[in-house]
Every structure is written in C-alpha cells, then in structure tokens.
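Let us work through a complete example step by step.
Step 1: write down the sequence.
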Amino acid sequence: MEAAETRGTELGRYLKARRAQVRPEDVGLPVGGSLRRTPGLRREELAVLAGMSVDYYIRLERGRETNPSPAVLDALGRALRLSGDGYERLHELAELASGRSSELRAGPQDAVRDSVLRMLESVHPLPAYVVNRCNRVLAANRPGRRLMPGLWDWPEEQRNVTRYLFLHPVGRTLYEQWEETVALSVAHLRAVAGADPGHAELTALVGELVVKSPEFARIWERYDVDERGGGQKSFRHPKVGPMTLTYEVMRLARTDGQRLVVYQASPGTADERAMLRLDSPRARPEPALQNPSEPAAEPCPTSVRPGAHASAT
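Step 2: predict the structure and record it as tokens.
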C-alpha cells in the first residue's frame, strides 16, 4: 500500500464508522420495506447527501483519495451530523491523510513537573490526579489515590483509568453510570488515536482491551470521539459510600497531553462529607441514618505528598 493510501486509512475508517451511526430516518431518507444489510447509511446515500459522486466517496472511505477540500469535509460533516469534537476530528484526520500533519509524534514525556506536584498538594483535600494522553495515572494526592480503590495495587505502568474501568472488579462497580463513564473514556482514546495513530502506548492498550473486554471492543468500534473538559460522576465507593462529585479537566502546558483532574462537591452536603472521608486514615461510609440537626464530624485533612510519577516510556 502506498504511503498516501496508508495515511488515508484512518480517515476512511472514521467515515465508515460514523456512517454506520446515522440512520436513514435521521436525515430524512425513506427506510423502505426491504431488509438493509448495512448498518446506518449506505455509501451511495451518504454521497448523495454530501453532494459528491459515489465513486469519489468510495475512494475516500478506502483511503485512495487523501486530499479532500474543506468544502467536501464540511459537506460530509453535515451529512454525518457531526459537531464539536467529531467535526474537528474529521478535519484533523483529513490533514493526516494529506500529509499536512505529522503521522507520528515523539514518545510521551511522562515526568510530572515539581510545580504540578505542588499543585496536587495545594488542592488537598480535593481528590486530584494527573494522567497522560492515554489515561495512565502519573501522580495523585492521597484522596485522589483513594478515589479509585485497587488501582494503586497495580504496577505503575498498569495504572490506567480506562484499563481500571474495564478490567478491575472495583472499577466495574465504582460508578453509578458505568456505561456512560466508559463510553467517555473510550471516546477520549479514540480522539488520541485519530490525532496520533502510531502512538505506541495507546496501540498496546487498545490491543489488550480489545482482547480482554468485549464491551471495550464494542464501544471502540463505534468510533465516538470526545475530549470532555469536565462533568459530574456518581460513585458507589466501597470505603466512604455514595457520592456525586463534579470534576474539572485541565490541560497542562508544555507537556505531551498531560491533564490535571480535580474533583469537588458542594460545600456542606453529604457528598462533600463523603469526599472528605477519602482523606481520613480510616475511611468508612457515613451511617444511613443520623440526626440531621447534628452535623457529621469532619476528619481533619492532612497534607500528603503525591504519589511518585511514572517514568517516561
């Protein structure tokens, strides 16, 4: 396969995966009475919706056309009902296919700066940790480590949030909305793969999870992309009980995709009391019944040095 065609393969896979997500009725096409063998739109249907020849679209999807114009990409984006990250990913993959962006990047730099480690200390007792582009945890403060029980029993190179969600027994029960949580985690990895398909750590992680987790393989094939900057998660934590926390994700400048994740809860709520117990020497769930006129005793937060960061791979 020629180099240009190789670059176009990822763009073609993306188009095919997104085409399968769009139903004919979603775009005003008749469903018809015959059995459809193709999930989602047929190639010829998408070509008509995007205003291009079927032959040209087929060449795009097969990686043989590697230089679509911005107008063509916009038309495909509208036909595929893309927006936000999905729309941006289409243009990024087109740049990769055309050779305008580098196919491979230098290996990830996973050393966490001292200033970032001090930042983990400064947000204490809020749970916080730093992850690399592939969701591997590089550093955390004490409540951040305790937020995901069992993750720190794994060797440093295995401490990946996505791996934890799919393969660790606690990771599969920790989150109230597990399906939504794993879908977002996989969508982030898809975004990384689209921008850097040759990323060695990501390739190894995806290969492992596809083999070990049918759920991961199913979600990975949907080709959803999402790089969410924050949100809310509800936990069923085995040590401190149920809690719903908001979180913010902050990209760290001058790194290869490192992100700082910080959780918090509304002051004075049961969620905050549960979160603060993550920092208690003996974290226990709050009793189900208590006198609401008597505020729960708060543990005295103590400072802790964040976990040692992983070495660069």
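Step 3: interpret the result. The chain is about 40% helix and 10% strand.
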